[in-house]
Amino acid sequence: MRKLYEVVIKHRKKVIALFILAAIISVFELQMVAVDYDMNDYLPAESPSTIAIDVMEQEFTGGIPNARVMVRGVTIPQALELKAEIAAAKGVTGVTWLDDSVDITMPASVLDRSVLDNYYREDTAVFSVTIDDKLRVEACDEIREIIGEDGAMTGAAVSTAVATVSTINETILTTVIAVIFVFFVLTLTLDSWTDPFVVLGGLGVAILINGGTNIIFGTISFVTNAAGNILQLAVSLDYSVFLIHRYEECRLKIKDDKKAMVEALDRSTTSILSSGLTTVIGFLALCLMRFRIGPDLGLALAKGVVLSLITVFFFMPCVILTVQPLSDRFRHKHFLPSFDGFGRFIRSIMIPMVCVFLLIIVPAYLASNSNSYYFGASHMFGPDTQLGADTDKIEEVFGKSDTYVLLVPKGNKPVELALSDELHSVHQVTDVISYVDSVGASVPKSYLDEDTLNLLESDHYSRMVISVRSDYEGEEAFALVKQVRDIAEKYYPGQWQLAGQGVSTYDLMDTITADMLKANLVAIAAVFLIMVVLMKDIVLPVILVVSIETAIWINVAIPYFQGNRVFYIAYLIISTIQLGATVDYAILLSDRYREMRAGYDRKEAVVRTLSAVTVSIMTSGSALIVVGMLLGKFTSNLLLSQLGYFIGKGGIFSVIIVLFVLPGLLYLLDGLFIKEGHGIIPHHGKEIVE
After folding, report:
1. What is the pLDDT of residues 480-493, one digit of tens each?
2. CATH of region 1-32+190-334
């Protein structure tokens, strides 16, 4: 690698120009990367609800109702006029209301009260609206104009439209504040006023290139779009800082700056690469999930870390050398004190801290696996948002509601009628719209207009639109989905298709719960094996993995003790992200401890290790903590907010365990991985100059 570094330094102006050009191109490519805000799009292609949607789109022009729109203070004729206006809005492909279920020319007093109350009560009408997935934002904006501020809208399409608009601005705000904080931290930990600009500039180039190269995916998820950039900033920050510190150390011994940089790169390669490799592997474990947001985020983050490493090894050295005169001119005094006192303090309490740690491992693990979960998108916006308030208004009058679409082979009207009758007997079912319900099994098709017939039958299927009094998820909702599927199987074994928001959420639950154990075990095993190879030891990797895993368990156990529900996707992702992002802290401390043990006894090695690495861990850790907390604070999307808080709190717990508990574990288990008289195995973790 030394020869390569020498070539890079020799042609540093060309290297800088190449990276800047790549960043500029990436800015334009960013505009071509689409963002998908619908979680159901990331279900496996083989999931039953995904197959059902594909079949329905091939057979019928109308989709599944994905929004509820309520208007107060209207008569039935006025509601019909509003229905026509909503149906004419851009992006609206269908509107279902009372007139689709009963003959509204009849007096209201003689209509089926259960059907009437499902669509109209207390001078208030609620419409089931189908909105084109590609025009959600435009459709929701136009519907809002039609119904006015007193109206209310809810549903999957509305939730996705709100997320599309709000997430962009919130992500920008989060990123700006995160950059300001990181700049402040770098100012405290680096020796020149110019160094923070150099580090952030290098990371900015890496982040831009990563964002632009996402064009290879075509589309990324809203989770990746919101969290990817700031996570790349947080987890990659320390690579640049380590290089700068190593370079300053080499400059003290080598007068030629170019040779000093080559030496710094040569001496830093193993430590930075090994740290980056554990992070990359941790993120790549997300690719094993069948729920495709996992691979979406994992590939983008892993690619981001790789690009950050490339930037650190090739772009950053050239920039550092180019601005070296300015860096020397604007040097400042050290703002942070020595951490020798902190090291002595930890030495005095490390044994009690290990005891506390051992006491909480099992409860933390059990609690972390006992949470209650949200699996879908129905609770992503709270009551303090307009969507949350609108949802409460609609449910206050009409209760919870969902719509399933059941497709069965057409042609056997008596069987369809029997199926419909049994569906009606399910107490959560409030209405069924189908050929046999709306027309009757004995009425010839010639009596129907073509548009109505096309909504109810295709070349191969009859369609039943089932309105249910149910939430989109939860034990009762999932039991209802299973019941409807069982009924369909009874009449049309293996020949039916069922779709709907609640159905997709059921499949989502079924998919991601199966992903959890696989992704975690692979991430842990991969990181463990990498550390075994790099450290040439088995005991030490076990200590480090148990330490970080305990921090993860404590993190995800907190909602259990608070009595709060957890978005399963956030729970699923954080387990892998926290491992990949923070195991480096443990590697750094353990490697420096082994290095110190070459010349000091166990107690003194603990003090000197903490004195050497605390600033490094706190720099990287504080960035991860603040980035996570900012995401949690400034996003109105509760799933992203919870993921952000998980990242921030996870960083806190990892830093606490690494600085307060791990030294004691290394001290007590020293004899298992330190062989007296046989020298110390060369270190491979992150480094920082004392």
Report:
1. 999 999 999 999 99
2. 1.20.1640.10
